[in-house]
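ingest -> validate -> predict -> emit
validate: passed (alphabet ok, no gaps, 378 aa)
predict: started
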Amino acid sequence: MDKLRLHLLLIVSALFFFHPAMASHLAGQDFTYIAVDSAGGMYHYRVTLVIYQDCIEGSPIANEQDNPAFFSVFTGQGDIVQIDSFVYYSASTPVPITSSGPCNTGGVALCRNKLTFSKDFYLRPSTSGYNIVYQRCCLNVATNLFNPDDQGMAAMCSIPPSGLAAYNNSAVFSSYPPFIISYGTPFSVDCSATDADGDSLSYELCTPYAYTNQAYNAKPLPPYPPPFIPVAYFSPFTFADPLDCSVPLAIDPHTGMLTGTPAYTGTYFIGICCHEWRHGVLINTVQRTFEFTVVSCTPGADGPSVDITMYPNPVIQELFIEVSNEQIIYISITDVLGRAVYSQTEYYDKAQVDMTEFPAGMYFVKVNGSNVRKVIKG
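emit:
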């Protein structure tokens, strides 16, 4: 039995009783690498994956089961080269909630955990290059995503074919965007990157990758190879227009400066790509995904939060939901174990959910991804 098959068998055996949770909690990622050295015809790469968890509205069980992360290495032709599963995070830290403007939190409760995974890979130069892949369910609930409970996250970093760049360091984003931006206030956020090889860099809004087999496996081992399908945005949102803005969201292709003026409150999932160019040839692309939460506020003080009414509570049959200051775009319900039990796309000021068949107990009802209420089913 070859080493790869033996490795996979040992992994499957070790995880026989491990069932990763399927629940919304992933709020963004960065996936990069550095070229450490080369010897004996092998190149030594240190790969770093950073994922962001929602530690308030996300499932605690799903957050816990993000560790370990599972990686697969594929050639550019899709052949699997290596599987690694025992990549425990080197750091797990709460991230300070930062703002782009005068707001603090606008009355919205936010919490993000940052998990950093690092792994060394030793790979021979390849004429097709390599793709290192990570996949996990499920995306955090956001205003602009269609059924995020049913969408996983696919992240990938690529090592160029040897004919394009025999030795390469990926671009690395210089700083993380603020979590909070202010309704009706122009913002300017530096989303630029640096490159250790001195490659030219360009920027654009791009579609995040989705992992769509989560119904069968919330945390696949091994992860599946590309190509990946795009994340499904709730119409009229798209990857190129992911945020409600009176002045459209745009990124300067040369500087990486992201600008816009938010027109509505909510939580918005966004993808940015940084392209590496060497001698005028595109050799690699690094993708970052993240969330903006738009809040309403006045300078120097938190503004009013969105007023949500849910009744009756406890509920026997129909749960009625009314929202002021914004429209209902998305509703999701999870149980106390963080399992998604209901989702519905709306576009009204009021909504109703038939909970007649729900088992008795406590549930968490989320509206537009940034508002959560506890409801008791009698």
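The first strand starts at residue 26 and ends at 39.
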